[in-house]
Design a protein that fits this description.
22% of the residues lie in helices and 34% in strands. It has 553 residues and is an alpha+beta fold. It folds into three domains: 3-178, Galactose-binding domain-like (Jelly Rolls, Sandwich); 197-357, Galactose-binding domain-like (Jelly Rolls); 409-550, 2-Layer Sandwich (Alpha-Beta Plaits). The strands form five sheets. Strands 1, 3, 4, 6, 9 and 11 form a six-stranded antiparallel sheet that branches. Strands 12, 14, 15, 17, 20 and 22 form a six-stranded antiparallel sheet that branches. Strands 2-5-10-7-8 form a five-stranded antiparallel sheet, with no helix packed on it.
């Protein structure tokens, strides 16, 4: 499965607690026999099941593996779109579970269908694992069954069915998940332990906020609205990409709640202002609904709070909130501003009645002490201005390259300056210079998206091969420098050989050169890098001569 599909995934639609008609295990039986999920849809309801990444989900009585009903996935446009369910509060990280689900399609030829798991960890990283995939004959119910262990650091577990034919309609029935249940799972009929207010200030971590689509969430201390930390959202490729949080068990349906989120962006490449949105998403009878809570114009370098009231419908399921940049018209071309990186901090969810009462009290107090309040506001304004100025200066020294998530050129130049002033440190390190080959050919024949993927692929390969003792820097469009405390030449060569054999539809090759301090030819950082560059150029010429059909880089 290509990672490209992550860009289209609207991860939020399956981010609520999985209680879709679960049968809770009796503690007196063996954990391996417990049926935590047991859905046959014979009550004519899809329950907590929703479509993963878009499409239409409905309960039908035209075909069924057992009983009268099944769920049908239709109006699909991508291979990964299919029925999904999330089981955060029911399953236990580190435990192994038995999965079984029956699938059916009415096509003319066999097609491959799979049951896939998606996990999000505490840092917001997303990983995928296939539970089971089989070639399914038309008009025959086929069981997809296997065992799978939940990763130890996972906090969000979603399971969805998919089909390699992106246009195919298919059916799912008799889904079970067996294994050790959570010590005290929430019974479907019990009311959650609602709080009157929730605050997410991100002082310790990302607090279970997860990516909505293919993006990166970074817990950072670069900027903050309050405290010292916030979350940084980057590597976006769609306006709807942003951080999302499931709130199904946090808000009472039919009651008004106040929502607020402070947002900020910066960077010389962006316009001076841009509209951002705070939205809520939920499913009703398997259909997704997207609704605006608040939107506002955000000025570059200035924290802006998006706030508003919203009442969740009584029949809503899979409820979540998220932050994104403004929507664009169909057919309108995406710009750099539409895909900007931004920060989020100080998100609040509060019962509406409490906020309104609090606002009334505030008006009375402010009226009585207006002079004092005015002075306080002046002090706060001065602090905010100083904070913004500090942030603008700090932005120039951001260390991470947004596209590849390795260190950027600013970081590299600082490191080189440090090594120029510290020859002893220079002597104990190992160096590599790497360059992606055939990038011009890839861009011209496969598109710039594939070219960007080749660059990102090289960065991931180098980071994975060299390990924690090495820092990888992106010093140019397709150039990287590795500086390591341990030898890295064989590690990088083996990684390049292995990755080059992984065919992703375009030629992938990386030229490299290596060097270290030798007291003769390489006596300082400049001569070391020069030798790396010389070796890399020779390697590049060798690769070109062996692959002349991909000439002109």
């Amino acid at each position: 499965m290509k990672f490209k599909f992550l860009a289209a995934v609207s991860a939020v639609i399956i981010s609520s607690v999985c209680t879709a008609f679960p049968v809770y295990a009796d503690d007196s039986t063996g954990a391996e026999d417990n049926a935590i999920i047991n859905d046959n849809f014979d009550d004519a309801s899809a329950g907590k099941w929703a479509m993963f990444g878009g499409g239409k989900l409905e309960v039908v009585d035209t075909v069924a593996h057992s009983g009268n009903n099944s769920i049908k996935a239709s109006e699909r446009k991508e291979t990964y779109q299919g029925p999904s369910i999330t089981c955060d509060s029911l399953l236990v990280a580190g435990e192994t579970y038995d999965f079984s689900g029956w699938v059916y399609h009415e096509g003319d030829v066999p097609t491959t269908m799979s049951w896939t798991a998606r996990f999000i960890d505490t840092a917001g990283e997303t990983t995928y694992a296939q539970i089971k995939g089989l070639e399914v004959q038309p008009n025959e119910w086929t069981e997809l069954t296997n065992s799978l262990t939940i990763p130890e650091n996972a906090v969000n577990y979603a399971f969805y069915f998919e089909c390699t034919d992106a246009n195919a309609e298919f059916f799912v029935d008799d889904v079970t998940i067996k294994g050790k249940a959570n010590d005290s799972p929430q019974a479907p009929t019990a009311e959650p332990d609602y709080q009157s207010e929730y605050l997410y200030d991100f002082e310790t971590d990302a607090e279970n906020w997860s990516p909505r689509g293919d993006l990166k969430i970074i817990h950072t201390d670069e900027y903050s609205f309050t405290g010292t930390h916030s979350i940084y959202i980057t590597n976006r490729n769609a306006v709807w990409n942003g951080p999302t949080l499931m709130i199904t068990d946090k808000v009472r349906k039919g009651e008004s709640y106040y929502y607020s989120a402070s947002v900020m962006y910066n960077g010389e490449e962006y316009e001076d202002s841009h509209v951002m949105r705070l939205e809520v998403q939920y499913a009703i009878n398997g259909a997704d609904s997207y609704n605006l809570i608040a939107s506002g114009e955000v000025k570059k370098g200035k924290w802006t709070t998006l706030e508003g009231y919203y009442t969740i419908p009584a029949e809503a399921e899979n409820i979540s909130i998220y932050v994104q940049t403004d929507n664009i018209e169909d057919g309108q071309e995406l710009t750099n501003n539409d895909l900007m990186s931004f920060y989020v901090d100080n998100v609040k969810i509060t019962e509406g009645a409490i906020v309104k009462k609090s606002k009334t009290v505030k008006i009375i107090v402010i009226s009585a002490v207006s002079a004092i309040a005015f002075i306080i506001l002046l002090i706060i304004a001065v602090k905010v201005i100083k904070h913004i100025r500090k942030n603008k200066i700090a932005l120039k020294f951001v260390a991470i390259d947004a596209m590849t998530q390795v260190f950027n050129r600013n970081s590299y130049e600082k490191k080189i300056e440090e090594l120029e002033n510290d020859t002893e440190q220079c002597k104990s390190l190992y160096y590599a210079l790497c360059d992606v080959n055939f990038l011009k050919y890839i861009n011209d024949n496969f598109g710039h998206e594939s070219g960007d993927e080749a660059i990102t692929r090289c960065a991931k390969m180098l980071s994975g091969a060299t390990g924690s003792d090495c820092k990888v820097y992106r010093t140019g469009g397709d150039e990287f420098v590795c500086i390591s405390k341990t030898p890295i030449d064989e590690k990088i060569k083996n990684a390049i050989k292995s990755e080059s054999e992984n065919d992703k539809g375009y030629p992938f090759a990386v030229a490299c050169g290596f060097a270290q301090y030798d007291g003769n030819e390489c006596t300082d950082i400049k001569s070391i890098i020069a030798k790396c560059d010389k070796e890399m150029y020779a390697d590049k010429q060798r690769i070109k001569s062996e692959n002349q059909k991909f000439s002109r880089k």
